[in-house]
Amino acid sequence: MSSAYTADVVVMGGGIVGAACAYYLCREGLAVHLVEREFPGAGTSRAGNGLILQWPKEPGPLLELARQSAALWAELSERLGESFDYRRNGCLVVAQSEGEWEAVQKRATLLAEWGIWGQQVEGRELTTWEPHLAPDLAGGIFFPGEAQLDPRKATWALLRAAQRRGLKVHFATAVRGFERGRDGSLRGVRTAQGCLATRRALLAAGVWSGEIAALAGVQLPICPRKGQVIVTERAPGFLSCPLLEAGYGQFPAERGQLQVALVAEPTAGGNLLIGSSREFVGFDRRVSLRVLQAVAARARRFLPSLAKLQILRSYAGLRPFSPDGRPLIGPVPEVPGLYVATGHEGSGICLAPITGRLLAQWVTKQPLSVAPEPFDPARTSLAGE
User: Structural domain boundaries of the chain?
Assistant: First the structure.
C-alpha cells in the first residue's frame, strides 16, 4: 500500500478476537496498528470460561468454522512460544432425563459424520468417570477432541507474537471516528490520540462494535447478552475434564428471561469455574446475586458435592449476540475498506483464530478458508431481530 499511510490495517478492539486478527494480519507481513480503549482483554475476553467447544455447534457452516478454529488453537499452542494453559482434555456432556439422553445420542451420531467423535457413557457408569456427579443422571457423551485455555493469557500471547512481527499497539485509546474519501471509502481512523491514516480497518470490539460502527454511519445488529461465572476455591481432582449439561447449547433468544445451564470447568490452577447464565440486560456488567444463586443451584443438581466448596469470587461479561446465531465476519459494503469481526456470542474464544485467519485472507485477497456467505455482515437473516 502507499507509503503515505500510517498503517496497512488498523484493528479496533484488543480482546481475543482483535488479538487474533492482528496476529494473522502481521503474519502476512502487513503494517498493523491495534487500538484498544482500555487494556487487552478488558471486555468480554476477561470474563469467558475458556472452552473451545465444537459439539454444541449446529452441523453446517458454524460447525465447520469451529472445526477449523479448534485445529488452529492446537497449532497456536505450539507456535506462539508461551503457555496459555491450552489443554485438550475433552469434555463430558451429561443428560438428566431419558429424553435428553436420547437427544444427545442422536446428536453424537450426527456429529460423527463431521469427524467430531463422542463416546457414550451409560448413566450407571457416569460416576466412574466423574465421582462427584449425581447418581440419577441418564447418561453422557465424552467428546475427547474438545479443549480449553486461559483467554486472558491467550490474548496476551497472540498480541506479543504479533508485536514480534511489528504490531504497534495503542492502549487506553478510544476510537472517535473515521476519515472518508469522496467515494465513501476509508482513509483513516480518528482516535483520542490522533488520526491513523489507513485504507483498511477491522472492527473487532465485541458488544461495543455497534457503537463504533455508528461513527461511520453503519448499523450492526449486535446486542449484549450477559453471562456470570462463579470461581471456587482450589479443588484439584474434583473434575478430570469440563462438564456440561446436554441443554447447554439450547439457549433460545428470549428477552426478559434468565437462562441457566451447567458448565463446570477445572482450571490449570485447580479452581473450578461454574456457569452458565444468559440474559439480556443491556450493558450492565454488575454481578447479580440472584443470578449467582440460580447458577449455583443448577450446578449442585448435577454436582451435589459443590456445596462443600467455598466461592472465592464471581464475575460477569457481555457476549456479542447476533440475531441468527452466527458471527459477522467480512467487509462492510457501506464503507469500502472497513471490515467487521463480531457477533460470536459465547463462541468468541473458540472462533478467534479462524476469524483472524479469514480476515487476513480477505484483506490480502487470498482464497478463503470457509465459504463467507453465512457470516456476511450484510446477510438478510440478520434483519429479523
Answer: 9-76+151-220+324-384, 91-144+223-321
Residue 29's Cβ-count burial label (10 Å; 0-12, 13-18, 19+) is exposed
* Three-point CA angle 45, 95, 47, nearest 5°: 10
Query: Does the predicted model carry a pTM greater than 0.70?
Result: yes
pLDDT (average), residues 270-274:
97
Please check whether residue 156 is in contact with residue 85, taking contact to mean a CB–CB distance below 8 angstroms.
no
- Interval 293-335: pLDDT, tens: 999 999 999 999 999 999 999 999 999 999 999 999 999 999 9
Residues 6+ apart with CB under 8 A from 264: 239, 242, 243, 244, 272, 273, 274, 299, 302, 303, 306
Q: What is the pLDDT of residue 203?
A: 98
- Is the pLDDT at 108 greater than 80? The verdict is yes
CB-count burial class (<10 Å; 0-12, 13-18, 19+) for 183 = exposed
**227, pLDDT greater than 90:** yes
Of the chain, the percentage scoring pLDDT greater than 90 comes to 90
Q: Are strands 9-12 and 32-35 parallel, antiparallel or unpaired?
A: parallel
CATH topology of domain 91-144+223-321: D-Amino Acid Oxidase; Chain A, domain 2 (3.30.9)
> What is the arrangement of strands in the sheet containing 168-170, beginning at the earlier edge strand?
168-170, 32-35, 9-12, 201-203, 338-342, 328-331
Nearest to 294 by CA among 314, 277, 270, 271: 277
As beta bridge partners, residue 224 has 320
169-219 tens-digit pLDDT? 999 999 999 999 999 999 999 998 999 999 999 999 999 999 999 999 999
The DSSP annotation for 79-148 comes to HSSS----B---EEEEESSHHHHHHHHHHHHHHHTTT---EEEEGGGHHHH-TTS-TT--EEEEETT-EE
Give the CATH number of domain 9-76+151-220+324-384; options: 3.50.50.60, 3.30.365.10, 3.40.50.720, 3.40.980.10. Answer: 3.50.50.60
For 248-343, where are the E strands, in sequence order?
Answer: 259-266, 272-278, 311-321, 328-331, 338-342
Which residues are paired to 278 by β-bridges?
259
